[in-house]
Specification:
Its main location: membrane. The chain has 589 residues and is an alpha+beta fold. 56% of the residues lie in helices and 10% in strands. It is elongated. The termini are far apart. 33% of the residues are buried.
């Protein structure tokens, strides 16, 4: 009896058993991949940590970036730096490029697929009845082609969906672009407001020191008492403590601006004061016109439209998948055999193939239901987006109008409080007013100065918020288009800045304005030694040199609102409130 087949079978079984045992013993113990207990931190292995040689590619230094630390930067330069360095803008741009590649990928279904292969094989055949063996070696290439001719619109619907996704990605980039502009504008004016708050506090410190000196002089001449001097001294220390708060706020605002720029924060980051208060020409259109403008041009609204259309095409593609596909298939091969008489052999075939998946476990049915639900969800998300945009435009529009009036009222309040303080200061030195009257007037003046700083900060933020709400750009950001048209840039830079429909013509720079409490009051006459309005200017220059390492150079006062903003308010006061109603609800559908 021939035992060879049985011996080979036993050998095969033994090898399989050995392999199974080896596989089981080599299983990874996953418990060692986490911490031993919930109360312990996980210690990462060395290979999980980024090496020191890992470098994330960043933007190349530009002319605008080279100005950092050289001189104080104005808002257009800061915007230019942020758009070149901010990772969010670059990430959104690369995402749009990925969507463009996905759209190109969807076009590949219109072309045939061609594949080439080659094979080399060894055949071994044994016939136990004839007691003979046949060995042969075969090799040869083969060519296969498959061309989809018709699938009831599924191919075109898929390509259209990819195209709309590309549009959505581009609109998302535009929205990111505008959001970065808003962040930089807000951070710039926040830092300017922090500098202005420090300047106002420095002016208050001069007044407090003058009050303390007057109280001390009265005590030394026997006309005052020690309690008044101590109260005046306490007021000086309170203002000095507020200055430390202002210094901390400046550095916090500087850090926020650096984060918006996409650079490291440092004392070298200094800003130029705004040449004029921010304005917004589109406000003449009224709130209804701004709402309509936002629904037409805001990038995230247009992105939502594109995503809805993409979902519609996805539903059409899912419905078309129910029907058969017609394709052209062709195949050819050449085979050569060694040790055989029938070689070589050529083979070719071409056929029209109709393929129809009749049943796949209701997969296509649920795919249609999924696409339909996704479309309905996207439609509701688009409607909600419109409602939010209308709410934002309405809120920021009236915040802007209110901020203009607040600035005007705050400036008048500073003038009145300054005159009251000067008069009471004279009265205190002549014995008419008490120290309490003088301290109260001083606190009221300090409050009015800070109120003006806050009002101008709200005005700047309301302009940035309103511009972002309607999908526009503030005037400083519009200068980027001028640089884009005048400078020679690389192809990648042009693509990064080529955002259609976002730019408007910028107005010429107005003349710089002087803060109100730094102007010389020619009518005020005070011989008592109390601080004058013009003394604030000297203190403002001196206060910037507090520390060599404090980074406080370039501290500026808040600016005044322009006459154009006041004219807008006067023109709008005569309008009826009904003119600002929202458009009919049908426009939101």
């Amino acid at each position: 009896m021939n035992r060879a087949p049985f011996q080979r079978s036993a050998l095969t079984v033994g090898l399989l058993a050995f392999g199974a045992g080896l596989l089981l013993t080599s299983c990874v113990n996953v418990d060692e991949e986490v911490s031993r207990r919930p109360s312990e931190l996980w210690k990462p292995p060395a290979e999980s940590l980024p090496g020191q040689n890992v470098v994330v590619p960043g933007p190349r230094p530009s002319a605008a970036s080279n100005q950092i630390g050289v001189k104080p930067l104005d808002l257009p330069t800061l915007l230019d730096i942020s758009l070149e360095n901010n990772p969010e803008t670059r990430a959104s741009w690369y995402q749009a490029k990925a969507s463009a590649a996905a759209y190109g990928q969807s076009q590949s279904d219109y072309y045939p697929t061609v594949s080439v292969s080659g094979s080399v094989g060894r055949e071994y055949a044994k016939n136990y009845l004839v007691q003979g063996t046949q060995n042969a070696t075969t090799y040869g290439p083969s060519l296969t082609m498959n061309w989809l001719l018709f699938n009831f619109g599924q191919r075109s619907a898929t390509a259209d969906s990819a195209r709309e996704s590309l549009y959505a990605a581009n609109f998302a980039f535009n929205q990111t672009y505008q959001d970065i502009v808003q962040q930089v504008v807000t951070a710039y004016y926040d830092l300017h407001a922090a500098n202005s708050s420090l300047a106002a506090t420095e002016a208050s410190l001069e007044n407090a020191k003058a009050t303390y000196q007057a109280a001390k002089t009265k005590l030394e001449t026997g006309l005052g008492n020690k309690q008044d001097m101590l109260r005046a001294l306490a007021d000086v220390k309170t203002v000095e403590a507020q200055m430390e708060v202002d210094y901390a706020n400046i550095e916090r605002s500087r850090a926020q601006l650096a984060a918006a720029l996409g650079i490291k924060v440092g004392e070298y980051l200094q800003i130029e004061p705004p040449a004029a208060p921010p304005s917004f020409a589109e406000v003449d259109e009224g709130v209804s016109g701004l709402v309509a403008l936002a629904l037409q041009q805001r990038p995230d609204i247009l992105q939502s439209y594109a995503e809805t259309r993409s979902a519609e095409y996805d539903l059409a593609a899912a419905q078309a998948a129910l029907w058969p596909e017609l394709s052209l298939q062709a195949q050819g091969s050449y085979t050569h055999s060694i040790n055989r008489t029938n070689n070589p052999m050529e083979y070719a075939q071409a056929a029209l193939v109709l393929e129809w998946d009749i049943f796949q476990g209701f997969n296509k049915k649920y795919n249609i239901e999924k696409a339909r639900s996704t479309l309905r969800s996207q439609e509701q998300a688009m409607l909600n987006q419109k409602i939010q945009v209308v709410s934002n435009v309405w809120t920021y529009y009236f915040a802007f109008r209110s901020a203009i009036k607040q600035v005007d009222a705050s400036k008048e309040a500073v003038t009145a409080q300054q005159q009251a303080y000067d008069a009471i200061s004279i009265g205190y030195n002549t014995g008419i007013n008490s120290l309490l009257d003088l301290l109260t007037a001083q606190q009221d003046l300090d409050t009015s100065r800070q109120a003006l700083v806050d009002a101008e900060s709200r005005l700047a933020n309301s302009v940035a918020n309103l511009a972002n709400a309607i999908g526009s750009l503030p005037q400083p950001a519009q200068r980027i288009e001028e640089r884009y048209a005048s400078e020679e840039m690389s192809k990648e830079q042009k693509e990064a800045l080529a955002v259609d429909g976002l730019f408007r013509d910028s107005d010429p720079d107005p003349e710089p304005l002087t803060p109100q409490w730094m102007e010389k009051d020619e009518d005020a006459k005070d011989g008592s030694g109390a601080s004058q309005p013009q003394a604030d200017n000297a203190q403002g220059d001196k206060g910037t040199q507090r520390h060599d390492d404090g980074g406080q150079q370039g501290i500026h006062q808040p600016s005044q609102a322009d006459d154009h903003s006041q004219q807008i308010i006067e023109d709008r006061e005569a309008e009826n409130v009904a003119d600002g109603q929202l458009p009919p609800s049908a426009d939101l559908e």
